Amino acid sequence: MRVKSIERIIVDVPFTERQLRVTEREVGNWSILELCKVTADSGHVGWGETVIHYTWCCVPDEAVARVIGQNPISVMNDDSLGAGLQMALFDLVGNILEVPVHQLMGRKVRDQVPLSWWSIDASPADWAAEAKDAVANGYDSFKLKPRPWWDIVEQIGAIDAVVPRSFKLDLDPNGTLKDAESALPVIQQLEAFETVAIFETPIPQHDIEGNRALRQQIRSSIAMHFGNPPFLTGIQEEVCDGYVIGAGKSEVIRQGLLSAEADKPFWLQLVGNGLTTTWAGHLGAVLSHATWPAITCLNLYSDHLLVDPIVVADGHHSISDGPGLGVTVDQDAVDRYRVQDEDLASFIDKDELFAHPQPRIISSITYPDGNRIHMGSSSQGYGYFIEGKGPTYVEGVTLEIRHDDGSTEWDDLFQRALQEPVRED
Fold it and tell me: Largest CB tally within 10 Å, which of 5, 84, 415, 424?
């Protein structure tokens, strides 16, 4: 068996109507996927996908050249191939050998794996609507991105009011709660809601003393990205209850086995559409401590690109024992969302990834006392608030999304806010 050809297809899969609006400030380009279709000399095919603006590793051109003509078994465990190509090779080998991908990875320990709904920061009303959709679609958990520019307590309260008591919320401030002293009162307020379960990176992960102190004073679990601080340091210092794991197959297995040795649960964070979610499911099926709900952001996409869309029931989706990934790519959907060569040409000429135009948006934070902070991009806020330049939490704070109105005043503020957040005291 040899790899005969590799086709790479760029598709742009629309997000759901609400998420199109919610994500435009920060992660709108996650809709752009590169599909890898690998064909063997036997005629068997394998598929994989990459979120080119987010994934742990895009597929490099040299990897494609390196794999052509090779026995796929000899190269499929090489994480340097990138997300989509590695996934496709495992799917291909499974199809050739007529075994499921999970059988190529290890011993299956569960037939169903937990999966979480996901959203970037949004208004309390939008988060509540997303939570309702999550429940209606069979999910029992929701991973969220609380930010200092929203009233976090109001956001969680809005969700808590519309979900069952068994529903769980996992909150990821991305370190914006700054330090243990600032984070503790905010977390304690949020822990009044029984739906709150896990905090991922509430404060910067390198703050060992702060994370240890915080963990000792809250009931919720603390999750950290594996490896920061170093694994042994984190275990010895007891800084977290579990991990976030996301990488290539070999590294995921390594980190998953180490987590099991330390008896630490984790969630798999492998962002993508239907193929990626299926791939994450096969990994979760063989890793004993992959018991926290996986984060793939599947719910963002209006189409899974599969003949049979992924179904979630009681917070889990079933893992196929059919050959390969056990799913069939919807070729009609691929053709429908395929980005045409003429639209790719200008990006290829500049050696750039295909992307949507950068939105012209001012994100204006308004505090109850009338003070405002204007941001030219949401990503500016992370460092700004972690460094203590803005308050960790203020009751009643709101975020106004201001699109370009064509005025000179708007453009002047936008240009200044692109350089650094602009304060109006």
Answer: 84
Q: Residue 361 contacts by C-beta under 8 Å, 6 or more apart in sequence?
A: 24, 25, 377, 401, 402, 403, 404
Residues ≥6 apart with Cβ < 8 Å to 298: 115, 272, 273, 274, 276, 277, 304, 310
Lowest-confidence segment of 97-106, 193-202, 296-305, 340-349 by average pLDDT: 340-349
Question: What count of other Cβ atoms lies within 10 Å of the Cβ of residue 345?
Answer: 10
249 and 79 Cβ atoms separated by less than 8 Å: yes
CB-CB contact of 295 with 243 (8 Å)? no
Q: Domains of the chain by range and CATH?
A: 3-106+332-349 (3.30.390.10), 112-325 (3.20.20.120), 361-424 (no CATH)
pLDDT in tens, 83-113: 999 999 999 999 999 999 999 999 999 999 9
Helix (H, G, I), strand (E, B) or coil at 117: strand
Cis peptide bond upstream of 146, omega within 30:
no
Distance separating alpha carbons of residues 320 and 343, to the nearest angstrom: 36
CB atoms within 10 A of CB 58: 17
